[in-house]
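User: Assemble these into one structure.

Assistant: Restating your components, then the assembled model:
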Amino acid sequence: MNAMLTSSQRQLLRAISESGPLSRTEMAQMLGLSKAAMSGIARDLIDLGVLHETEIVYGQGRPSVLLDLHPECAFFVGISLLEDPAPMILSDLNGKIIARQAMPLSRDPKVIAEAITEGLPSLLEAHPDAKEKLSGIGVALSGFVDESQANCVQSTLLGWQDVPLAKIIRERSGIETFIENDAKAVAVSEKLFGSAREIQNFSVVSLGDGIGCAHFIDGKLYRGNHGGAGEIAHCTIEPGGSPCRCGKRGCLDTVASMKAIKEMSRAEGLECTSLSDIENEASTGNAAAIRILHRAGSALGLAIANLIQMNDPGLILITHVEGSFEGLFGTVVNQAIETNVLPRYAGQTPIRIKRVDGDVWARGAASIAAHNFLIGSHTS
Amino acid sequence: MNAMLTSSQRQLLRAISESGPLSRTEMAQMLGLSKAAMSGIARDLIDLGVLHETEIVYGQGRPSVLLDLHPECAFFVGISLLEDPAPMILSDLNGKIIARQAMPLSRDPKVIAEAITEGLPSLLEAHPDAKEKLSGIGVALSGFVDESQANCVQSTLLGWQDVPLAKIIRERSGIETFIENDAKAVAVSEKLFGSAREIQNFSVVSLGDGIGCAHFIDGKLYRGNHGGAGEIAHCTIEPGGSPCRCGKRGCLDTVASMKAIKEMSRAEGLECTSLSDIENEASTGNAAAIRILHRAGSALGLAIANLIQMNDPGLILITHVEGSFEGLFGTVVNQAIETNVLPRYAGQTPIRIKRVDGDVWARGAASIAAHNFLIGSHTS
DNA sequence: TTGATTTGTTCACTTTCTGAACTTAGTGTC
DNA sequence: GACACTAAGTTCAGAAAGTGAACAAATCAA
């Protein structure tokens, strides 16, 4: 790959990824280098096809030429092992999804590697460019992944323990492969492709069936000492509350996950199959629905407030697949955050809500590969 | 100062500070440099008086010479603005306290600068060496400090808002000065002088009158986006609980701080003036004392468990000034941590308890100056 | 058209690091 | 006690990356 990029070159790519197109002079200032040095670095990256000149900005004096990442300089495949069939997407360096298909899920790593390898030709079929410039595969899964983004330390869902998945896929497919925990992958995609590009410290809370969370700190994904940073789902929110499948009681997951909300409404005899249904019930005054949404919303809000207190992030990004945040649930969450954060902080931490489609995980997976391509995982 | 140290030189100093004495060959490996480069860097730092040769380790082949920081190459003054009179200490590069005195506390920054400047001669009197090599002043205070460690953004205790304290002290005394929040200063001193030297990710929970907390992430103090990372004291632990002076309800501070514990016992009619007193009462079976310690301990344990879940640190260091952790309080804290952390994590995160003396804050303050001297604050 | 202004390039030179050869200071063996 | 063996640390020529100053280029403003 481009494993032989200079440290300065990588720094530059990161700066552009964060700030968008920049002139050479701006880049030089940003990295603290001389214009002379920058000139050379930019030339090399343009020759490599990674950067290209885009807009020309006219001002006083010679106009500046903005350089940007060349979106078609590299392509990535992202696979989500969270659903069956497993979504498989092809993305460019901007995170744009160019092709999508699905493959059967399996618990056998070798079968997965096989399915990916077999799926590649049809995914790439209509895109000869991408075929040639395929630069990495990313895999998102539910579980713990080690720092090298190569080994799955443990996954309850897949029944794994110390599975060197990246290596298995790389050896079978011949493509550089990285794996990552689902929530962390989503955070990386928001940093690289999404709405947190320029933010150095932020946390993403992703609401799917379960509740995921990941932190970026100083512009870097923070994995924690055992890869467990962000396990907000198993923070105790209702001490002595309902038992959780993790073995504890009162975990956030038991009250605020979509799964829990649906289970609670089923237990209350509500015929609701989605968050929207429950929201509808609540808006017509159904007491049980209101109670459930209140309980879930306060729990999630409290957990997020505690996160803000502990880590003081510059942004909380809540991504949700289902329903909307405009109903009771969202309102309660926001209220609970406000009332449980230091008054002098309240409103200081932007909370951004983002509805995402079913491609989040696969796009997140692709972003892991893209991140390794662009910046490398072990840059400071 | 030694503001003109190379980036490599600073990296080396950091490595030694983390790992203790190292041979040149080990250092070269650690920083990923050639032995040749290391040889030169070490020579320069020895000539500067920052490093010195210590032990000689015999093995096969030529014995290796371990290099260590020269503890007397620089001295620092640390002042804690948390008490009146304010402790003022002189420390070497190992964090050893060489002299100590006190100065009157004031809410007027200029008066503080004056008091420090006037206090210096007597503090340095018996130590001509330190006089000559005084390399920085550090100040610890309760409140928020900005990233440059120069300005106090806000301090309720001191009634400040945007006070450029470091500049004021520097201009009056002529010595490079840095300020920091109390809990963050303690964390830095544990990283630099204490029991967390070699740990990259850890959190310090410091129990004094209040509850402070600070995080090290990737070997760096993490301040948060508004300098508020670690404000665990105002995490909501008992939703709808007692009102806190911050304006919210049920903050950890209202149940588990020494102040809160003492207030609760007073409210219960116990004649206890210290944690030990209450522990004694509890050990004789006093139900109120037991109840109070249980409540406080569970709250603190829950907060720490949530911290572990969120950030997965490699170590939790609990420092306490008063009492002991061997009684009921400590036991309950540990239990609460265990029961509120993901079972697969329990026991994975070491919890270290450390009893500290009244010098913690001043030593922490000195460590801020030392850290800036050694490593500089803006190194990656 | 001319001057002002700012971007970006070129080039000679400095700084920092590398690789290979070499020196140094021990241990282990006979 | 001499002699190989081993690993640490130094030296030195040369490569790599960056700097500063001079310069070329491209526009605006008058």
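The mean pLDDT of chain B is 94.
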